[in-house]
Amino acid sequence: MAYMSKEGYENLVAELHRLEAIEMPKASAAIAEARDKGDLSENSEYDAAKEAQAHLAEKINQLKTTIADAKIIDKSRLSTDAVQLLSKVEMTNMANKAKMSYTIVSANEANLREGKISIETPIAQALLNHKVGDIVEAQIPRGVLKLKIENITY
Predict the structure, then answer these.
(1) For a surface tag, which of 49, 110, 112, 136 has the fewest beta carbons within 10 Å of its beta carbon?
(2) pLDDT tens across 89-118, in order?
(3) What is the distance between the alpha carbons of residues 154 and 88, in angstroms, rounded to a whole number?
């Protein structure tokens, strides 16, 4: 089961619709165009178009599975007592006093540019179930990162 926000779920549904309604017809048209060019045994365009269609079909099937297994989290039922999925956590790096803020989301919704980190990351794992004021240690590739939780919101 994949827990996610309503926004993340809607984005996946929109992406699935785009792939099925726009990209799959384009792939089919590319195959038809390549087929019209003659001998299929030596037609690299045809082979490439078929391979692209197969990758697209695989991506569509993965999205359908993720959507079918999705469980939307109702934010109104969440508490700010401790860090959990969909928490926006403001924290301070204890080594350099730098302030940072991340929202913990499902792997499908992660986007570092938007400040959304996957629940599977070492930082998110270290923060889970901790409260404001706690100092947590996250094992990252460069060593141990000590973070003080300053605020938890949604």
Answers:
(1) 112
(2) 999 999 999 999 999 999 889 999 999 999
(3) 5
